[in-house]
Amino acid sequence: MRDLPYRWIEAIQDRRDYIEDQLRLGSPVVGLPYEQGSLLLTVTKGAQKIFEVHDRIALSAIGHPADIERLRMLVTDTASVQAFQSATEDVNLHRLTHYVLAHTFKQAFEAIVGEAYIIKMLLVEIGNGDENTQFTHINYDGNVKVDHDSAVIGGTLEIENAMQEYLDAAQGETNGDIASALQLALKTWAVGRELSQRSEDAEDNTEVTDEEIEEIIQTELEDGEIEVGILDASLPSDTKFRILTQDEIQAARDTN
Fold first, then answer.
1. DSSP assignment of 139-184, as one string?
2. Residue 127: exposed, middle, or buried by beta-carbon count in 10 A (0-12, 13-18, 19+)?
3. What string of pLDDT tens digits covers the 256 residues of the chain?
4. Is 247 left (phi over 0), alpha (psi -120 to 50) or beta?
5. 170 — phi, psi (to 5°)?
6. How do 29-34 and 57-63 pair as beta strands?
7. Which of these, 107, 112, 106, lies nearest to 7 by C-alpha position?
8. Partners of residue 232 on adjacent β-strands
9. CATH assignment of the domain containing 111
10. In terms of residue numbers, what domain contains 223?
11. What is the dihedral of CA 87, 93, 98, 103, to 10 degrees?
12. Which residues, 6+ apart, have CB-to-CB distance to 53 below 8 Å?
């Protein structure tokens, strides 16, 4: 098909439209730093969505469960092999995303005769030595976006932009502790979730009120639960990742 460029471009656009339609209703993910590390937050209905990749690296994703698991195993196994063959310190997020994941996403997306991955992925690495915390967003087509302050993934670009705008406006008001970061991440998630449930005809309206945020949180938590994974630099072990318990999450939500 590449010898017929117009057909190839049309097929790429059809593939993009199909993937974005499948991702639209995915539960958003929010990544934020706090004083001792970084967290990833989403809301799930049973299946775990936040995972450790390596000692200082974690990931979450939205998309088809089989694709998420396949790519999670790819990056986790690659990190383990690199640590074994050289040194743990040589495993870093830049190498894993730019030389493993991004290439894999792009190759699958552009190979029209094959299956594309229905996925968006968010990874975070906390600082090691002089390095800063890094959030990396990988789109289904292999495009990579890196940020050191925060990151989100949502069903569409419009949803992500609205979430990021809300996050940027409110982030300076937090005091840096994990409770504040968790509460802000949950509200940002709610912005994305509310927008994902609106009709496509209402996409131009990305305003979400405080009342709508509280309502969508209450509604979604009736049959779902908040999942939070943290990378805590203060942990004495090499592995800095752990999943917060529901008691810890509730305690953070109750903190004023």
1. -TTS-EEEESS-EEE-SSHHHHHHHHHHHHHHHTTS-SSHHHHHHH
2. middle
3. 555 666 778 888 889 999 999 999 999 999 999 988 999 999 998 889 999 999 999 999 999 999 999 999 999 999 998 888 877 777 889 889 998 999 999 999 988 778 899 999 999 999 765 457 899 999 999 999 999 889 999 999 999 999 999 999 887 767 788 999 999 999 999 999 999 988 665 556 778 899 999 999 999 999 999 999 999 999 998 899 999 999 999 999 988 6
4. alpha
5. -100, -15
6. unpaired
7. 112
8. 37
9. 3.60.20.10
10. 5-254
11. 90
12. 59, 72, 75, 76, 79, 96, 123
Is the torsion defined by CA of 115, 66, 100, 160 positive or negative?
A: positive
Which residues is 229 bridged to in the sheet?
Answer: 40, 243
Which residue from 83, 78, 70 is spatially nearest to 98, judged by alpha carbons? 78
As for how many domains the chain has, the answer is 1
**Token representation of residue 94:** 């830049």
pTM of the model: 0.91
Q: Concatenate the DSSP letters of all residues of 176-206 into one string.
A: SSHHHHHHHHHHHHHHHHHHHTS-GGGTT--
Q: Is 253 left (phi over 0), alpha (psi -120 to 50) or beta?
A: alpha
Helix (H) or strand (E) holding 124: strand 119-125
